[in-house]
Every structure is written in structure tokens, then in C-alpha cells.
């Protein structure tokens, strides 16, 4: 059987279309016609030798083979882009100060730093994992070049939305639930201000469900420990959860649904130095690659 050589240009159209949720928008982003992108997708299915898309109402969804192809396409493009950056940016030097929310320290930081260091070994990175308010204050004061943080309604001039994630009720991974509908719902939460806490308590108030803060912590690790111990439910997204907890399905336990929250890259200036600009691109790619295709948001 002859080896199959997938066309990277075709794979890029495929990935961008899934991230934007529309191949018409992907065509605009890539500077191609919609018919040209459609032809590329047909070529991809021919190369794969199996159906990648299936009908889903009026639109298209991925088959199981398509989900597998998407994961590999992202990896191939990531390696291609990393090689291009390494060749063209081999002499890149400088210093980047980068911050990110606690939810993503273990999930994204090792990959992001590894990719960046391989491509730009002469650039030094100062990384800080902190809560949202501290990150945004540091960007505004110029102490960080860029930060990956939740959109908490603070107006800042240089921001790029990376993803839109639904908030979820988070309980212990064990079958035992900390609440059966009797008495106030115990919550595990950060001290205010916290966008997740505010959204959760507001939803409970609208639903007429009494609540109480059973455990509070200044760190995300503390929230996971309190939740895993069965002290109460907490509110986060489904990304970056440790195995000791699980995200409840919508409507589970009779609890109200929660809103979605934007994840964004905040920059200290509109135009950053080359090292920071390159790091911002790697961070955006890493976030989108870590999300299910249906959650990938439009930048």
C-alpha cells in the first residue's frame, strides 16, 4: 500500500474551519474562496479513504474518523509551524513575562514552555500562575507582557478572545454527592471577587435554591481538595480538572444551568515585541488544541 502524504495546506483549512465553526469563515481567514476550501475538504476525505464529515441538521459534524484526523492535523500543523518558527527565529532573543490562570498551570504551561523553548532557546520566560485579578492588574501595570485569563468584565484595550467555555458544577469523583436537595447547598469557593462564585450564587438565587459557603480557599488546589473531600460543590469549567473531581452534567442534581465564560489573552500593548508575539500565538494554539472542537471559539 502506497504511503499517504497529507497536504498541510489542506489540513490547515480543515483545522481552521473547525476552530471557527464555519468553513466560509475559514475561507475568509485564509484568503481563499469557499469553493476552494470545499475542494480541499473533499481531497482530504479522498486521502483519508473514509468519511470525515457527517450530516448534523443543516450543518456538518465530524465522524469518529474525523475526530481522529482533527487531532493528528493539529499535531502536524503544530510541528510544521514550530519548525518554521525555529528556522526563521533562531536568533530571536529577549525576555517575555507571561501569566496564566490557575486552571491552566498544569494543563497548558508545560506544553507552551516546551514548544517555545525548542523554537527560541535564546529567549527567557518569566511565568506566573495566579488568580484572575492579579493577572489583569499585572498586565495593566506593565509587569506582564501577556496573560491568559478569564474575562471578568474589566475593560482593557488589548484583548483577544481565545475560547468560550461553559461553567459547570463540580463535585467529587466518588459517587457520593455532597448535596441531595436537603438544606442549603454547600459551596466550595474562592473569597470574592470571583466570577465563578458570583455566577453560581446568582443562578441558585434565581432558582430559589438556598446555599452556604462551606469551605473557602485562596488557591485552586484548595478548592479541589475541599470538593474531593465532599465538603460541597464548586464552580469552574470542565477544563483542567484533576481526577479527584468531576463536572456534573447540565441539570444533574436539579441544579440550574450556568453561563459560559470567555477565556482571553490580555496584552500590555497593541504591538508586542517579537518574542511575546510568538508566545501569544503558541498559547492560543495550545488552548484551542486542548478543547473539543465544539467548544473552540472564534478569535
From TrEMBL:
This is Putative transcriptional regulator lrhA. Belongs to the LysR transcriptional regulatory family. GO terms for molecular function: DNA binding; DNA-binding transcription factor activity. Keywords: DNA-binding, Transcription, Transcription regulation. Gene3D superfamilies: Periplasmic binding protein-like II (3.40.190.10), Winged helix-like DNA-binding domain superfamily/Winged helix DNA-binding domain (1.10.10.10). InterPro entries: LTTR, LysR_HTH_N, LysR_subst-bd, WH-like_DNA-bd_sf, WH_DNA-bd_sf. Residues 6-63 form the HTH lysR-type domain.
